[in-house]
Amino acid sequence: MSSPELLSLKIVRRRDIAERVVALDLAAPDGAPLPAFTAGAHLDVHVAPGVTRCYSLWGDPADSRLYRIAVLLEPSGRGGSKAVHGGLPEGGAVTVGLPRNAFPLDEGAPHTLLLAGGIGITPLLAMAARLTAIGRPFALHAFFRSAAAAPLRDEAEQLAGTRLHVHLDDEPSSRLDLAALAAAQPPGTHAYVCGPRGFMEAAVAALRMRLPEGAIHTESFSPPEAEAGDRPFICDLARSGRSIPVPADRSLLSVLIESGLPMDWSCEQGLCGVCVTPVLGGVPDHRDHYLSPAERVGNTLMTPCCSRALTDRLVLDL
């Protein structure tokens, strides 16, 4: 099909499924089975020359014929969603990486609560399909601005059936008290939350009143914001001989790009590994979900999209 790490696939179906959301079904050109994926996994999609973005797989993991993704157009984004919406036609080719999972499903939980905000429904649909297949109890609550802005609602009804609960901002009767929902969860529940940052913060705050931290799992589609206590530091670039100050409220990646360095990047969340950079000095503050525990302990690699420095200076092989 292609190299061991990349797949050249055909866009066998493209359709608009909600306001500013397009869905793509990808298959092998010869119809061969695709490499398996697990619920919660994502694809690194090469949406344009030099532009790679991560998109969650929402289809049934048991279906080896298709990789299914859905992409929300972000007018203020850096071009990934615009490239998908403006290009990648049905019948065309697209290059993707092998599926990877930084948001895995605990299939042994006695009960699972899935909370989706908008396009965040995508990885949770794959979880709903898997939980249905193995006969585990779950509930999927999907929160949308309106019926017109509800991507994959029909597919969610097919996958989750009566376990799907839809809540629309413009229909007061369908709104839900997250605190009450969290309080009603049975012991042993694991919760999975995906959506816009504000939605996730509210959902996680409610869930923490009922569930232990280890039972709350999240995936955000937004770059991380600065954390309280983040400090400025100096990034020394060994090859170019430059020293660049990194403010407390800026990511290292954004500062490097602004400084004119030709950085490769994609997810901005430490998921994909595209921006992994060698470290020659200093100690990184690892905040990614990509590096192995051994790689973190070794401190010779880091993801500048989300990680920072524990030392006053950090030396990169750039």
UniProtKB/TrEMBL annotation:
Question: Which SUPFAM superfamilies would you find in this protein's record?
Answer: 2Fe-2S ferredoxin-like (SSF54292), Ferredoxin reductase-like, C-terminal NADP-linked domain (SSF52343), Riboflavin synthase domain-like (SSF63380)
PANTHER family recorded for this chain? CARNITINE MONOOXYGENASE REDUCTASE SUBUNIT, NADH OXIDOREDUCTASE HCR
Superkingdom, natural source: Bacteria
* Domain FAD-binding FR-type residue range list: 4-106
- Gene Ontology molecular function: 2 iron, 2 sulfur cluster binding; metal ion binding; oxidoreductase activity
- Name all 2Fe-2S ferredoxin-type domain ranges: 233-318
User: Which Pfam families does this entry report, sorted A to Z?
Assistant: Fer2
The UniProt keywords, alphabetically, are:
2Fe-2S, Flavoprotein, Iron, Iron-sulfur, Metal-binding, Oxidoreductase
- What is the designated name of this protein? Oxidoreductase
Does the keyword section mention Iron-sulfur? Answer: yes
Q: Does the record's keyword annotation contain Isomerase? A: no
Task: Enumerate the PROSITE patterns for this protein.
Answer: 2FE2S_FER_1, 2FE2S_FER_2, FAD_FR
